[in-house]
Amino acid sequence: MAKELKELANREDNYSQWYNDLVVKAGLAEYSAVRGCMVIKPYGYALWENMRDALDRMFKATGHENAYFPLFIPKSFFSKEASHVEGFAKECAVVTHYRLMNDPEGGGVVVDPDAKLEEELIVRPTSETIIWNTYKGWIQSYRDLPILVNQWANVVRWEMRTRLFLRTAEFLWQEGHTAHETRDEAVAETERMIGVYRDFAEGWMGVPVVVGRKSENERFAGAEETLTIEALMQDGKALQSGTSHFLGQNFAKAFDVQFTNRENALDYVWATSWGVSTRLIGALIMAHSDNNGLVLPPRLAPLHAVLIPIYKGADEYAAAVARLGELAAELRAKGLKVKIDDRDNVRSGFKFAEYELKGVPVRLALGPRDMAAGTIELARRDTLSKEVVPQEGLADRVSALMSEMQTAIFERARAYRDSHITRVDTWDEFVRTLDEKGGFVAAHWDGTVATELAIKEATKATIRCIPLDGPDAPAGLGADEQGTCVFSGKPSSRRALFARSY
Amino acid sequence: MAKELKELANREDNYSQWYNDLVVKAGLAEYSAVRGCMVIKPYGYALWENMRDALDRMFKATGHENAYFPLFIPKSFFSKEASHVEGFAKECAVVTHYRLMNDPEGGGVVVDPDAKLEEELIVRPTSETIIWNTYKGWIQSYRDLPILVNQWANVVRWEMRTRLFLRTAEFLWQEGHTAHETRDEAVAETERMIGVYRDFAEGWMGVPVVVGRKSENERFAGAEETLTIEALMQDGKALQSGTSHFLGQNFAKAFDVQFTNRENALDYVWATSWGVSTRLIGALIMAHSDNNGLVLPPRLAPLHAVLIPIYKGADEYAAAVARLGELAAELRAKGLKVKIDDRDNVRSGFKFAEYELKGVPVRLALGPRDMAAGTIELARRDTLSKEVVPQEGLADRVSALMSEMQTAIFERARAYRDSHITRVDTWDEFVRTLDEKGGFVAAHWDGTVATELAIKEATKATIRCIPLDGPDAPAGLGADEQGTCVFSGKPSSRRALFARSY
């Protein structure tokens, strides 16, 4: 581990390599034998479980139930919604056969040519089609509405260039799919769920996000409107972290889902869908971590504190471990997840480095002098600061520190993010800001796809979102403002947020 | 719903149709547009969540961690373990292509012939191969052992004849995959986990099980020993409900996973795997339910009690609903999950039938006379008995009733099961018992595959297990006993448990 740790690339020199090293060496995930697919290792999965459980409680608190729909989708379903097929049915895993047989030539197993499916099945890249095909059987009347269903599932998109957590062929996610009587109710649901995502990102992950609308060009294939939360990573690139789509009546029309409304007339059902994925783990890592390893927000950390004995000889070892056992019990009684690392074949410096790499928020080291003085050394992962504190009241202190660190991690990320939103009014400034400073660039845009694509071609920056109205929008971006497009010079009534992104 | 309920087939006339009706009409699951794949509806999924969460706590309490491995397995992996390929690589979903394209003829989308995979990928039917290929990178020394990992995942086996929950092409399950230094440790793990499954089946599901070894013929493909829990359904058929496999060094050898042991020598790693699936939902339904619908054990029921107002006119309605709100709060304070059904467009008789169908353990109905007398009508789902009880102390009474019902449901199933284990000593008795009584038949068997297959051919009964030693074995089956095989007349030292099964 010490050797491996030394090999962690420097964040300032090679952000991308630093990220990959960190994910692998902290034991979060690794690539598998299947191209583009990852193995999520126990420590990474424990983090995902904490995220999933928190989100699941938020979904249930807003009235949603979980269900499960098939992994496979008949190929023809993708052709039913015209723009959806363009967006999703292309790079995907296609099941064509349902049986293998012994190779007549003796070379292991081969696909049985007689077991060809009549219609190919697609491994779901997203489930709107199979779900709306199912909802057709569930919905007859307005009394059957709303349907507020979420699914936790794996999905597959055949990505050519992959990166652990951020973009893999298979990933884990949740997808909410709701059905409503009215447009207004569906729009309200779309907004409610992007709000849930914002609250989760900021309150649990400690990652500040900008909430906004996607441009038409960046919209979900099949949506009338896509809302997004956009986060900023420490290299100045943006990361789309969650989306909520108002689907209008598009899928209801594609799958003929009509209902008898309160006026006793037939109408098509209104839909939303919304999702976040294991990509959030990537956001979490990239937003907070440093050259020593992960920095995890306490609310999601699989382990809150590690306790390490410092000793010479068997007697000091036994005394320190015994006392740590008592302290661990006090910490656990406060609901903290703690571990005593009593390995005696590993130096304590090695242990320190290991838990820094793994981002455990608090490290407690107890040596002979502490034993005598009734103190213990407390190290904070986020600031790397250390202090000697009394053992008395330790559990309360660590408990309070968890809230303090949760806030500090968020505030640090917010300060970085806020200092990396730059309002620019000329094309020259636009390009220079992207190249020299990075981050979000708030600029007037004429609202056309042509300009958006030309800007992307020239700078690799895309419109991350048009920030929503309201006091939550950073840097006063949530308001109309007259100006001229930085690229075309045409009039504009609102700034869009541009950035290079993952 | 009242109409639908009437259409529930009679359990005594057509068990199979009764089961299917029940699953669909209670809103647990339904078939999807994809052959053999089911949709697990919110009520069924809530049940699965409760089962999953209880099992997950038991796995963690026995030292296991969760992780996640790829959905896809390279075809060649299946050829590496000789018996595994025979058992699993045949009826499976095969991914051959990774892209669709617009049909040049204009007919929607078609598979892009240029996007053929070099090596086909199999949608996992079970994950031993991909996991042991991964463990190779995790294990160098005995210090890396044991690995105690579990995965919650979807798997696919291309079944021709499917039945909701019991046998579907895709299902949800957990698969534990552990790696050990020694044979003894791996054997102990295999036994520990079948014990966890027994405790879960009996303690949570209220389903009594026989724990035993599988015969060589019924063993998991690639295992040296398979332990099983076998449950008995109300139609006298057995259901394999969970298995735990001692895999020896088979997968370590197939994937070349060696470690440096404590003697500093290289050795192959010892393995186990164990799993239960959404099939358990089928076991639960079949073991307890009746012609009125589901009977759910309180420890797993998504809803413990439903509260229904009985009224004439708006005043009585308002008064009853208000009082039910107070009572519901008291019940919730005891940790009970309750719901007030205050729909005013549905008759109470309809509601009664609906919650009986859904197996809600307790129904509480509050009418004007109860309002005056301070009483409430309490109906128990398992016995269908009703009594009028005081509102005072209701929460304590319902709380206690949950434990009482949990025990009663288990004891009723156990009495049925125990009365359906028949010791027979002649072939004639064997056949007659299967045909006339059903259930488990405990008979001497000569231990050969030939006899086992001949018995199956003659009677459709298979060896469900050879019960393990110990006081837990029902009907004194956990002991050696000299006898002669009912089929061949050859000597036998132990009875095996035969049954027709799902």
Describe the fold and architecture.
Two copies of one chain form a homodimer. In chain A, the strands form six sheets. Chain A has an eleven-stranded mixed beta sheet with strand order 3-8-9-15-12-11-10-23-26-22-21, sandwiched between helices. A five-stranded mixed beta sheet of chain A has the order 17-16-18-19-20, sandwiched between helices. In chain A, strands 4-7-5-6 form a four-stranded antiparallel beta sheet. The mean pLDDT of chain A is 95. In chain A, strand 1 and strand 2 (38-40) form a beta hairpin. In chain A, helix 3 (42-61) crosses helix 7 (183-203) and helix 10 (313-333) crosses helix 13 (394-419). Chain A is of the alpha+beta class and 502 residues long. Chain A contains 15 helices and 26 strands. The first copy, chain A, has three domains: 2-72 and 139-288, BirA Bifunctional Protein, domain 2 (2-Layer Sandwich), CATH 3.30.930.10; 305-400, Anticodon-binding domain (Rossmann fold); 421-499, C-terminal domain of ProRS (Translation Initiation Factor IF3). Chains A and B meet through strand 2, helix 3, strand 3, strand 4 and helix 4 of A and strand 2, helix 3, strand 3, strand 4 and helix 4 of B. Strand 5 of chain A pairs antiparallel with strand 5 of chain B, so a sheet runs across the interface.
